[in-house]
Amino acid sequence: MNAIGIIFANLHERNIPELTRSRTIGSVPFGCRYRLIDFTLSNMVNSGITDIRVVTQYNYQSLMDHIGSGKDWDLARRSGGIKVLPPNMRYNQNYTGGAHSRLESLMGIAASLNHIKEDYVIMADCDGICNVDLNALLSDHIKNDADITMMTKRLMLNGSIGETATIIEADESGRIVDLALNPRYAVGEHDVALNITVINTSYLQNIVQESIAHGFASLTLDVMMRNKDERNYRIYRYDGAFATISSLEDYFATSMDLIKNTAFRTALFGVEGRPVLTKVRNSAPTRYTEASSVKNSLIADGCTVDGTVENCILFRGVKIGRGAVVKNCILYQDTVVGENVFMNCVISDKNVVVRDGNMLSGHPSKPYFIGKNQML
Q1: The pTM is what?
Q2: Which residue, 368, 288, 293, 268, is CA-closest to 328?
Q3: Which of 67, 155, 266, 359 makes a 20 to 30 Å CA pair with 113?
């Protein structure tokens, strides 16, 4: 593929502050053994992209630990491979915070962009979960001689998703005629941007230089809205499985879908030739005692289960004590649940300890969250 990949590891973190206080949104754990960035990385690698740049701003230590040299994604290469790009705000001497938009992030890596030799750049965020062939997106972009092509999905909005979405209006040929960024109370059927975009490299380089010169901050508002009548901006509709993590409640619901929705799980992990790749770790098998009872759950290796687990996702090293009842929960790595504990609709971050006899319960619409390293 004559394209490189750019992944934004920090965007949208304000949507789920509970899980991103000490990590990027790209390194948020998901589905027993994965991180959110694994889906974006795998989509690119499975589509033949072998030069990928991950743009970071802060809290990226766990992300770098997870990616390492990139060998688990076959990206440990002399030419290309994967590069984690730390923040560089020298383009704006008065700018003191992290980048809050794609365009600000791109301006921070302007020097890196100027060295791209491929004709196209595919950009993606980390809050979208899907298994998609990006070759189809690029082929559509080239066929229509587009400047920018945005992947969209036709969704029925209920008035809440519009607060975190970009809604696009296109004509019958697929050319973009209008965009609405984070519209409140949007209802009805609309094309919603999935934050996967292909853009011509030379055009991207020009956009970044112009934005630095004129102080632009938004690719949607300051660039696309200004030039939509002169430039060929297009959409590419995707009709496969897709989930956006725009809140803690979204994260909980999407995680539970892995257990309850076989079609969704298969669409992510059962696509032939497009595996979801992640960092490989060698751990001992999970141990189930005679007193344990496990139903309809996803459990990683290295766990010890001595109680009842139903409709749960357990990451590596979780320990469930004797007599404990854990239902509809997501427990991160090395969580310890004591004896005779009852938990329902709980999300625990890493290294949490729930002491004997505690009772904790949330609701599917409002899961109970326990922060990292806490003891209750």
Answers
A1: 0.92
A2: 368
A3: 67
